[in-house]
Amino acid sequence: MTDFTNSQIIDFIYAEARMLDEGRYDEWLALWLEDGHYWMPLDYQQDDPHLTTSLMYEDMFMLKLRVRRLNGARTYSQKPKSRCSHVIQRPFIDLLDNTAGLYQTNTSMHYVETRLDDQILLALTATHDLKRVDGKLRIANKRVDLLNCDAAFGNIQLLP
Amino acid sequence: MDGDAGGMTVTKADNQARADAAYIAQLIQPHQVHRDVYTSQTVFDLEMQHLFTNVWVFVGHDSQTPKHGDYFTTQIGTQPVIQVRHSDGQIKVLHNRCPHKGTKIAIDRTGNTGTFFRCPYHAWSFETDGALKAVPLDRGYENTGFRTTANAGGIKPVGSVHTHRGFVFARLAETGISFDDFFQDSLSSLDNMVDRSPEGQLEIAGPPLRYMHKCNWKMLVENQTDTCHPMVAHQSSAGTAVRIWEELGNPEPKPAAMQIIAPFMSPYEFFEDMGIRTWPNGHGHTGVSHSIHSDYSAIPGYFEAMSAAYGEARAKDILDENRHNTIYFPNIMVKGPIQQLRNFIPLGPDKTLVESYIYRLVGAPDELLARTAMYNRMINAPTSIVGHDDLEMYERAQEGLLSDGLEWVNLQRLFPGTAEDFSTETVENGTTERQMRNQFDAWKTFMTTSMPDRKDGKR
Ligand SMILES: [Fe+2]
Predict the structure, then answer these.
(1) Cα dist. B340→B3, B13, B371 in Å?
(2) Domains: count for chain A
(3) CB-based contact B417:A100 (threshold 8 Å)
(4) Binary contact (A56, B366; C-beta < 8 A)
(5) Does any domain span residue A157?
(6) Residues of A in contact with B240 (CB under 8 A)
(7) Contact at CB, B235 and A74, closer than 8 angstroms
(8) Is residue B73 over pLDDT 60?
(9) What is the CATH number of the domain that holds A23?
(10) pLDDT lower than 50: segments of chain A
(11) DSSP class of residue B253?
(12) Residue B152 class from Cβ within 10 Å (0-12 exposed, 13-18 middle, 19+ buried)?
């Protein structure tokens, strides 16, 4: 049984952000457990993803669809493609349970997304629930709280 | 300017209004519209001054302000307003402006003001129907003539307010077309949405999605009955979903997400057959016989609850009506089968805020609301892979219309060749652009209602 150190968990969070920035989506999807959800609430401190609207609450089917669409021949909103950059603060490790193989991190980030002459900046906090499976860290769930989640946005096309 | 110190309404000179009416009339032809309707600041200003003043505009839902003093701030056109529950239980809609210096009375989107409003600037206070309650140190206004001004009346209410089965509409103008004359039988779509609750009642479910569009508000309204775009603009999302599902061997039952997105790829024939109904005054809907919402799987316990409430036959009638998008002219769209309302709030000729609300069917299983919330975020969020392509189309159109290559925008699909009569309800092929033409016919009417010497001869 592998015991993960703080630094290995932090490296995992950094590596995930880099995959998104570099558009290595197949690798990114492979980090996820099959029943995971990417949740981006619409409301500040929202506690329910089901009975009110969220910006995103996507299972693996939706995430795979989202990623595959980005490279489609007729994906008009991605001609030209968007680019993104995550600047991340050192993650807090809020849970490190090597016995159960469960981990949780809390990471503040600045996310920049650009396309043509437009560029947006979002401040956010990502909460990762990680699980040890076959000696590897995997994403069980990820919650992304935008600081200005209740603001009106134009398109946010990649993954903050 | 011809106002006076007593606070009379300041009106434009009649000859300017005549020129405006002639200009507006020139922009609309039976089969095409001039690009100025989407790009011109002058047209936009006239829309705010006339169209959004003369007609009934959606404000909110009464469940957003259930108790006395509950308020909700929004806009009618560009006019800031407050929807508030008064002490008598009625919903009031007030101009969000202190009669003193103009300070907005309510700034947050929702709240409770207690038994009265209090302006944060000089503590003038107002009843929840806007009436002036008290002014601090009011002897300073003795013998000043203040009491005879319009400002002494308090926070000004809008011209008229009408609540239909929980949905609050307002007309800014003091006089004009009545609520019933304006909406007529189009209210059947709102009715069907509410009837889908076993208790005949909807309740707001959380805050709306807020999606900023750099395009004219009318592009969004027209898109709601544009049935020739889903299989094209949304091929990247819906088409890819269908392909992924095929690769998985088309397993059944399809999850809710697939049930929602796959019908966007329905062929042209599907949309032709589903039909479009138009009503007078610019209202209309897609999905007369069926729609992309027809084949959602049944939620356990729902039909039983509906049958218990209405009897089986009536329950079936209600649920067999699967209207797609209903336009309430000028600027909302309602999806009855999934309890969604989208408000296209004009901010400028090239700027529109889209707020997408969802409602809970009181007395129905939560799974229905879960599907509704899923629909909202999948299709209408700023993060939605469907919304992305729609916005891309609108913004490209807004930019493309600046081209001087052509001045007119075509609305001719299934146009009969001569000017149409929109004064009676009509059902046609589901790919017709008649509903868009209907909207512009109403647009011209209500733009010029309050202008003298209308060029189209109507009064
Ligand atoms: Fe669309």
Answers:
(1) 43, 42, 11
(2) 1
(3) no
(4) no
(5) no
(6) 65, 68-69, 72
(7) yes
(8) yes
(9) 3.10.450.50
(10) none
(11) S
(12) middle
Shared domain for B158 and B196, answered yes or no, is no
Burial of A72 (C-beta count, 10 Å sphere; 0-12/13-18/19+) = middle
Q: B134: exposed, middle or buried (C-beta count within 10 Å: 0-12, 13-18, 19+)?
A: exposed
Alpha helices in B234-384, H assignment, sequence order: 240-247, 256-261, 268-274, 302-310, 312-320, 366-380
Please indicate whether, in this complex, the C-beta atoms of B211 and A154 are within 8 angstroms of each other: yes
- Give a yes or no: residue B306 inside a domain: yes
The mean pLDDT of B56-75, rounded to a whole number, is 98
Domain boundary among B164, B199, B218: B164
- Lookup: tokens for B319: 């649920």
Joined together, the tokens standing for residue A137 give: 């860290």
DSSP state letter for B331: T
The count of structural domains within chain B is 2
B chain contacts of residue A62, beta-carbon cutoff 8 Å: 257, 378
Residue B152's domain comprises: 57-164
Smallest Cβ–Cβ distance between B212 and the set A51, A77, A152 belongs to A152
ipTM of the complex: 0.97
Which domain range does residue A45 map to? 6-146
Q: How far apart, in Å, are the Cα atoms of B368 and each of A70, B338, B339, B384, B445?
A: 30, 8, 9, 20, 39
Give residue B334's identity as a one-letter amino acid code. Answer: V
CA B101 to chain centre: 31
Predicted local distance difference test score (pLDDT) of residue B2: 41
Pairing of strands B408-410, B32-34: antiparallel
Phi, psi for residue B435 in degrees, rounded to 5? -65, -35
Residue B153 identity: G
